[in-house]
Structure formats: C-alpha cells, structure tokens
Write a structure and sequence with these properties.
single chain; Alpha-Beta Plaits; Beta-Lactamase; 16% strand; rod-shaped
Length: 356
C-alpha cells in the first residue's frame, strides 16, 4: 500500500471514529432525556391521581344522604365538566349519571361494567369512592393528555426536544469542522513530506556524486581538495542539513560565522585550505564546518549552547594569533547565533524574524 493510500485510510479512520463518538453521545443524550421525560410524566400523573382521589372522597362525603337529583346537582356544581374530564354516578350495574344530562340520556342503555371497560380502553385516570350507606359509587375520569397539557408537560418536552436537536446539530457541525481540519492538516503534512523527500533525494544524489568524484580521483591517484581540507561542505549541503536539524536531541544549535579578512595580499588555495584546517581543528566532533564563499565559513555546532560556543570561539581566536596566516596579515571576524529548542534553525541561520 502506498504512503498516500495509508494517509487516506488513516484520515477515513479518524473521521469514522469521530462520527462514532458523536453517534454514541447522541444515543446517550436520547436515552437520558427520554428516561427523565418518562419519569416526569409518571410523577405528574401519579400526583394528579392522588389529588383526584382526594377530590372524589370529598365529593362522596357531600353526597351522603342526598337523593339522586340532588346528587346530580352537587356533581355539576363541584366538578368542572369537559370533553376530557367528567364525573359519573353508578349504582350496582346501572349508570345513574355521567358527565351531564344529555350524555346520561344518550348512554342510558350502557351498563356500569360497559363504562368501566370503556374507561380502561381509554387508559385515563379513574378515581371512585362508594357513598356511605347508599350503595352508590361516585367517580371522576380524566384523560391523560388533558392532565399533561394542563401541567405544561407537552410544552416543556417540546423545548427539551428542540434543545437536544440543536445540540445534535452543533455536534454534527463539529464533526464536519474536525473532518475538514484533519483533511487540511493531512494535505499540509503530505506536502511537507514530499518536500523533505525531494530534499533527501537531492542530498543522496549529492553524496553519490561526491563518492563517484572521489573514486575517480583515487583511480587517477589524485587527492581531492575537499579531502585534503578535512571534508568541508558547501552551502547547498548546509541548507539540506538545516532542513534535517529538527531533532530535539540536536539542540541547542549554535552557528559560528567566520570571516577571514585577507588584507592586501593574495592567499593561494592551499593557504585557504590551511585556514579551513585550522578552523576545523578548533572544533569538536559534533561540529560541521562549511565554506559559504571565499574567505567566509560557518560551523554548525550541534548540542552546543551559547556559553560553550563562546569558549570555543575565544580559544580559536587565541590560537589564531600564533598562525602564519595571522602573521601574513589575515584577520578573523566572528558572529554567533543560537537556536534553542522550539526555534527554526533555518530562520536563525539566515537571520529571519521568528514567530513566538
């Protein structure tokens, strides 16, 4: 499988994982709010049934010792009649009164057992109490939807559902945004990897050409100039090394820029190589020396802080006073730049402003 295919697979995997988390959260929210809404409905219906039972008990006490007509009058006076709530009065299996006079006349053929079956089918709230010493039973029926509506439960649940839907939309938007960011970062990382791969290939090509060049010189029994000078690099190699200098273990990195002022006389190539050998001889094994241009050099001092670099620079300048090049009129000027952990070594090297 290619690297690009692996990246796409990883991207899809992260998006699927994010969607799965959101779906899981949605399921949890649905279960949580559904459970609490059902519990709230049950509690309200139970409380209303208790209230209705107390109301029927009080009504039964008022009906004690009254005739049927008087009982009907009291029931009409006490109970608020509607299509969803009404009272009834029965004796044995006969319906004496139900809801109002018109309904009683209309349902004159219905028995008390038939009324009980009807109310059971409607699954309403029914409360009954026997009137002491009379054989009559008085009761009140209330529709469940009427009770819930009167307590504002339907409106409350409506707002809860709207809030949950809004939360789902927000979570969905977050997943879309997350997927977009992952895709953008993936493309950015892919571009960086492609650039680094191209640079590595260029560096490998440079190394291959260098080895081929040395081999050709060895076959001709000629010692290469860069070997005589202790293996120095040019700016192309330095730039490639800077691109690879992001490992935290390499920090701190200090750059020692050296400019050799030749004075009025001409220095031969061998003399310049002698100066380069002198510079390299003052450095340590973890330092890389390169020639920037004629008379200008740089040392990449890996794992070297500014204080240590200053000590090495000072010892080099002290040793320079005893060289033949110094006696011939050449002078050395230096500059130190340090890149600590978190700094971009390329920006420090080229003196660019860094983002903090």
């Amino acid at each position: 499988m290619s690297r690009k295919a692996e990246k796409n697979k990883s991207y899809r995997g992260r998006v699927v994982a994010a969607c799965a988390v959101v779906l899981f959260m949605i399921a949890l929210e649905t279960i949580y709010y559904g459970y609490h809404m059902k519990t709230n409905r049950d509690n309200i219906l139970a409380a209303y049934k208790d209230y209705q039972s107390q109301m029927v008990s009080i009504l039964a006490e008022r009906l004690e010792g009254l005739g049927e007509k008087d009982m009907e009058s009291v029931i009409n006076e006490v109970v608020d009649i509607s299509g969803s709530k009404w009272a009834f009065l029965i004796k044995a299996d006969d319906i004496i009164f139900i809801k109002d006079t018109a309904t009683t006349a209309e349902l004159s053929n219905m028995t008390a057992s038939g009324l009980d079956e009807y109310m059971s089918e409607q699954k309403g709230i029914v409360s009954t109490v026997a009137i002491a010493g009379s054989g009559y039973v008085v009761g009140i029926y209330a529709d469940r939807s009427y009770v819930l509506s009167s307590y504002g439960v339907n409106d409350f649940e409506f707002y809860i559902v709207i809030a949950v839907i809004a939360a789902f939309l927000v979570l969905g938007g977050m997943v879309i945004e997350y997927a977009g960011r992952i895709g953008h970062m993936g493309r950015k990382v892919q571009r960086l990897e492609d650039e680094l791969t191209a640079r590595n290939e260029k560096f490998d090509e440079y190394e291959r050409l260098t080895e081929s060049y040395e081999e050709e010189l060895r076959q001709k029994d000629i010692e290469p100039a860069d070997k005589r000078s202790g293996r120095y690099y040019d700016m192309e190699v330095v730039d490639s090394l800077l691109s690879k200098s992001t490992d935290p273990e390499l920090y701190p990195i200090t750059f020692l820029f050296i400019s050799v002022q030749m004075g009025d006389r001409y220095f031969s190539r061998d003399e310049i190589f002698g100066i380069m050998d002198f510079i390299k001889g003052c450095m340590e094994s973890n330092h890389v020396t390169a020639e920037m241009s004629k008379g200008n050099f740089v040392v990449l001092m890996y794992m070297t802080d500014m204080s240590t670099a200053e000590d090495i620079r000072d010892k080099m300048l002290e040793s320079w006073k005893r060289t033949s090049a110094n006696e011939a009129g050449a002078e050395i000027r230096t500059e130190l730049r340090a890149a600590t952990d978190g700094d971009d070594p390329r920006k420090v090297f080229y003196g660019e402003e860094m983002d903090r």
